[in-house]
Amino acid sequence: MVASTDANELFVDTVATKYWHRLDDGRVQCDLCPRFCKLHKGQRGLCFVRANQDDNIVLTTWGRSSGFAVDPIEKKPLNHFLPGTPVLSFGTAGCNLACKFCQNWDISKSREMDTLMAVATPDIIASKAQALGCRSVAYTYNDPVIFHEYAIDVAQACTELNIKNVAVTAGYVCPEPRAEFYQYMDAANVDLKAFTERFYHTLTGSHLQPVLETLEYIKHETNVWLELTTLLIQGENDSEAEIQEMTEWVVAHLGPDVPMHFSVFHPDWKMMDKPSTPPETVLNARQIALDNGVHYAYVGNMHDKHGDSTWCHHCGSLLIGRDWYQLSEWNLTEEGKCLSCGTKCSGIFEKQAGTWGAKRLTVAI
Q1: Where in the sequence is the domain holding 37, given as residue range(s)?
Q2: Is residue 9 part of a domain?
Q3: Is residue 278 one of the residues assigned to a domain?
Q4: pTM (2 d.p.)
Q5: Which helix (H) or strand (E) holds 240?
Q6: Per residue in 71-121, pLDDT tens?
């Protein structure tokens, strides 16, 4: 980082990275994600923010964000991580996937540095989160994998102030940087976009297997709280057979306590020709997950209080009532157990639910 000598004026330059190597043909290969972009001097990777500068891969967006907002943690979505609490959310520009259905395409597909208007050091972000009463900071809107170094620096500053760190990600990252990144995260919502290689290859420009490996790594090699989200797109990843296979894999490889969120697709970006997902499709996917042994399954991008709420997988009692992002009931003991039968509800809970509600607050940093 390069900063001015004036404490009131911050200039942010590129920062060096370490996940890359030089090729025999004079190019430099980025080894952060399985895309393995091979760049001539001056070129940027598909993610836009990592570039070959003087035969080194650098991050060009350290300290710059597309904006900050305080959201309910349930919006990430995380239903079993500090429910009801506010989270300070931010992202940068660019993405290492090329999803034709991207819901945040104005940020993740941006190739304009003007998108990154907010300038903030890690200490400033952590202090702002603390001042706003946020229990966590979320790296979201675009994938934090691509601003790996900046996200880790912010996470370290937040941890010093007892503020938790949340990654909202597609999970498309190589093993070594993945291990470093998740040392600093407390929770993650990973987009399991589909369960076929065809979908990943044709609609996201990536591959399924590295994502599955990331999920297994997070679940079995870290203490990071994990939840999954799948945006269901009609005719692409919404068949009962695919949902069956996906949910069976989750239970077998990740366990029944990993919450799954199934969300309604709305036409966007390069898939304006696709219709919105019928609510019945999402509700059916949730039921398939439950029938296959998933303990906690939810619906998203649609209003359904039953499908938004958390139910005891043992006795069926309502544990956490939700109306959109507003908590309506809280029936857990201080130890996070069902008040009716005493069964433990998996997650990271405090003694009482937060009271942030459904509001969103845009923040100037």
Answers
A1: 15-59
A2: no
A3: yes
A4: 0.94
A5: helix 240-253
A6: 999 999 999 999 999 999 999 988 999 898 887 655 545 455 555 567 899
